[in-house]
Amino acid sequence: MTAFPETPFGATDRLELEPVPLAVIRHEGLRIADLRDAFDSGYGAIAAHFADGTLTPAGPALAIYYGNPMEVFDLELGFPVMSAPVQPIPAGEGPAITASALPAGPATATTVFGPYDGLGAGWMGLVERSLAEGLQPRGISIEVYVSDPTAAPEDLRTDLILPVS
Questions:
Q1: Mean pLDDT, 10 residues at a time, over the chain (165 residues)?
Q2: Residues whose CB falls within 8 Å of the CB of residue 111, separated by 6 or more in sequence, listed in order
Q3: 1: in domain
């Protein structure tokens, strides 16, 4: 996957992820209750560097969860970029913006339309269908926020990507 698809995924599409360069803010040891603050500050900090030309976006916002999001997990919030930052970029009082890459390898994916509170059910279905196909999740979950987050809740599109082995 060198670019993010314009068309939605089906119930359980298979794909091969490539290490797309990312500019991210990494948070370690988060809990689900910490997400709103992390999202609100993180995306704004990165967007400010799009506005000043430091970074050039190459795709929609995304979040990469490492570990179980229902427990303690690490999180990378960011965007695909034309080229990842060579040095950390200060991001106000929070963590710096750093280089990362989309985890490479096989994955399954689905698309969820509607409010973000429907993502849990979307993830449960994707994991169940992937396991039924004999695939093992690698402990990484990727959400790609395809639509503008200011859109009406019913118009939101989020692609869920589950790296598997």
A1: 70 92 96 90 89 92 94 96 94 90 96 94 96 96 92 94 96
A2: 8, 9, 10, 146, 157, 158, 159, 160
A3: no
